[in-house]
Structure formats: structure tokens, C-alpha cells
Here is the input.
Amino acid sequence: MTGDASLTATGAGGAPEAVRPLFGTLALVGIGLIGSSIARAVRRFGLADRIVIADTDAHARAAARRLDLGDQIVATAAEAAAVADCVVLCTPLGTFEAVAQEMAPALRPGTIVTDVGSVKDCVVRDVAPHLPPGVHLVPGHPLAGTEHSGPEAGFAELFLGRWAILTPPEDTDPAAVAQVEALWRGMGSMVRHLSTEHHDKVLAITSHLPHLIAYTIVGTATQLGDDLREEVIQYSATGFRDFTRIAASDPIMWRDVFLKNRDAVLEIIQRFGEDLTELQKAIRRGEADKLEDLFTRTRAIRRGIIDAKQA
Amino acid sequence: MTGDASLTATGAGGAPEAVRPLFGTLALVGIGLIGSSIARAVRRFGLADRIVIADTDAHARAAARRLDLGDQIVATAAEAAAVADCVVLCTPLGTFEAVAQEMAPALRPGTIVTDVGSVKDCVVRDVAPHLPPGVHLVPGHPLAGTEHSGPEAGFAELFLGRWAILTPPEDTDPAAVAQVEALWRGMGSMVRHLSTEHHDKVLAITSHLPHLIAYTIVGTATQLGDDLREEVIQYSATGFRDFTRIAASDPIMWRDVFLKNRDAVLEIIQRFGEDLTELQKAIRRGEADKLEDLFTRTRAIRRGIIDAKQA
Here is the structure.
């Protein structure tokens, strides 16, 4: 199952080195939390001569101008693609196919198209068929984010010390892959390569299921009677409070994640549901040893994450 | 369902006022995260003349001595109870009945017995029948904690600005209730009264279910093949990482919480399971609007928690 996961570790993480500009013009399509963080980091670390930002939303464009996030702000991906040496798709996954179709006639040979989507197999499926020959697709995914959305929420340090996973198809031009790697390393990330399929399975567990569960449990609470709901908010304490933070993440982005990574997500929900049923039975039957055993095992995983410096 | 919840808000939170000693001798039975935090706070804010600590575990007693958490460190609850004006039970819920039986012959009339357990109905059930006449039971629960355990993990500020919920039976001596209120206010908490039943329902949602879910999902991950598990740890990202923190909480304490609040926990698991099945169906069928609608509603709850200053 993980034979395809022989990883190429590159990049050292920590503070980014000084790098000469990697690109003439970098285009960011979509200027939300991630797009605006890339804009800030690319400026801060001098990774491109020029930044062009495209967003179909007039409020987002106005914010990008106010925050001075780019050198040129345009409404369509096609306008940005026409002048770009590298395009980074930072819109929700559900838009990728239409954006690729729209950009295609404008893209010049040699241009790199990459993205930051949380599912990777669908990027190859939805984007690759529309790109003209000579344009290089290097799908990518920074494992970084917050529960906040929009251009104001971004910050240049978002990717510092975090993983960026690239999932280039095997026949991708190595020079294009190296450029995208250098972009992420330049923003302070550590870079690894995975297959799209493997990426989507790992993320279904580490990110998509936790978000789905958080949305569910907070949703369960919204359906309580008014008085009880008020008290749930009042006494959110540790536990529920963390779930509400996760469940405050961008609704459109997450809708698309679940629809695009459907099979892997449904499989892991299935496993999770079976495990929850087991615990439910143990509680019903008063099986103290079974509960204690599981709760002790889960501590070890936390220890692993602390050791991996991802806590 | 919430008619019994007419709350008596007392205490202002924030920095505790200077209070004269409330108790001659305060006994802490169990010196883990919560017990040791109380010990530190009571000392810091001068809430008792003398602190006696009882713990059956020799390592915990040694740590309590090393950390100078109390004036006297003993092995049994009975020894502590014999000299106490107020006893605070800080052991796992599963020990309460035995501890109450053990303390009973030693308790003097007028002594207050309170606790910090996460379930309250069982305290009345397990402790009250064993207490001699004239001893006052005031069940309590500070909504505060961390994922760390043991005497070293405590700190005096743990309760600052957090809720302490008291669930005294209706015929409890008002002066005893006022003393326990003053203890929590003195440590910086805000105090509210709830019925035991209502407390246990609210906490089943805000705390017990989130912990159970976190234990389940991290448990699901521990059962993955070795390679995939390593990657789940490596790429824990946002989401899973938060769950592992919750799932690193004390195993014995949580085992007892689920066993002691069985009915309320099973009811809320049932509701959660139904809601998860709905989401699962929506993903399977590609119902984008349904997903977006839920994900948008859950944001509002987060806003409520931020407004309630519990974020």
C-alpha cells in the first residue's frame, strides 16, 4: 500500500535561505488565506519579480489592493495566466476544471501550473487534460492553514517549518518540479513527493476525517434545544472548543474536499464508524479494561507527533 | 429539559481578589493535574491555613513533597479526612465510593466534602450515602484541564477565568455551598449552579463526546499498517494533531467518565452517529448544497464561543 511512498526529502525547513527570484511573474489565482499567504511570503523572501493576482470576487480584489498583495490585480484567471511564468491555483477544488479550461488558450509553453488543493488525484483528472502541450502541471499541497479565511487572514510565516507535498505525475519535466520545490523551500517549507493516490489516503485520515467529525459534532450541537445550545456554548471547555475551531474552516473549500476525495473519505468514515461502535458497546457493557487499553494506546501516537515536531 | 437550569451566576472571574483563609485545613485527595493545581492556587491566594495531601501512589507523594505542594503528605484519604475542614476529592471517579467509605469514620461533623469530577450524578449516588450526619457534600466540577497528567503538570493559574460548576442537592447547607463557591472564586473561577442531571447532559456534549471521538479517530489511526501510520504521524497537520492532543488525556480518568456518565454519553453518541450517517450519505450522493449548508451553520457556533470568551 505504501510502496509508492518512497519519499524524496528535500529542504531543511526553518528559516528560508536567501534565494534569487525563481520566477519572473508568479500568478496567484484566488486570494484567500493560502493565496494571500503565498503573496506575502513570495514578496518577503524575494521569490518572484512580479506578482499577479486573479480573483473573480470584487471584494477580494479590493482587499488585495488595499493590502498591497500584488503588482497587478485582475478579475480572471486567463488574464493572469497570459503573463505568468508560474500559476498557482488557490481557489476551491470545485473550480479547478473551469479555471483550467479558461486559462488554457492564454498559457504560454514552458509555463508551470501548480496548486495548493487538499486533494491531489482530482487535480490531475480535472486540470491536466485541458493544459496545452509544453505547459507543466506540478500538483502541490502545503500542510498549513488556519480556521480563518480571506485575503486578510494570510501571513508570510504560514508555511514556515510545515510540509509541502508535491505529487507530480512520473513524466513531469524535472526542471519544473525543481522550480516548484524551490518555491516552497523559499517560503520555509519542507518538501516531499508522494503519489496522488497515497497523498489522498493519508490526508483522508489526518485532515479530512477530523474536519468531517468536527463539522458533525458541532452540527449535532446546533440541533439541540435553544437553552441547552446556549449552555453548550457557555461551557464549551476543552474538547468541544477545539472542534468548533476546526468546524469554523472555510465551508466552500471543505465542501469541495469531501466531494473530490469521496472514495478515500468514505472508506475512512466506514472504519471510524466501526471503531466508534466498538467503543459504544464497551461503554454500554461497562468494559473498563477495553476503554483503558485504547485510551493508553492513543497517548503513544501523540508522543510520535511531538517527536516528529508537528505538535 | 433545561427548566432546572436557572443559573445563579456568582464570581467575576479574572484575577482573584485577596481573600482571608477560608479553611483551617484543606485536604486534597489525589494529587494529579487538578489536585496539584488546587494546591498551588490555594497557597498562592492564601485560601487555607494548611494543606494536607493524600495519595495512595508513592511516586505521586514523593513528587508532592519535592514540589512542596502541601504541609503534610499522607498515604490514605482517612488520615487526611481526620484533620480536614474541607476535603476535595481529586481522584478518578471510579474510586469515589471506596474513598467515601474509607473516610467516613474519620470525618468530623461540619466538614465539607467536595470534588472535581467530570460527572456529577454519580457523586451524589456514590459518595452521599456513606457520609456521616453533619458532613456537607457539595459536588463541583472545574471546567479546566490540559492533556497532561500528574503532580508536575499542575499550575496555579489553571482555573483563572474558567467556570466552576457546583451541583449541590437542594437540601445542602447554604453556608457549606458558599464556602466552596468562595474557594473557586478565590482561585479565579466563575461559579454557576446546575442540577447534576443537567450538568451531565451538557458535559456529555461539550466534553465527553469530543474526547470519545478523539480517542476513536486516533485509535483508528493506530490500526493502520505501519507505513501509513508513520505518515499519518509525519503529516498530522491541522486537524488530526488537535485530536491527538485531546486523546493524550489521562486514560483512567476518562475511562471512569464514560462508565459513570454512560446514559448521557450513549444518547449523544447515538445522535452524533445519525448525523454522521447523514453527512456520509450527502458525500456519497454528491449533495454539495447540503454539505455547504452544514459547514456554514457550524461557523456560527464558533462565533458564539468567541463572544462568550471561552475560545
Notes: The first strand of chain B starts at residue 23 and ends at 29. The mean pLDDT of chain B is 90.
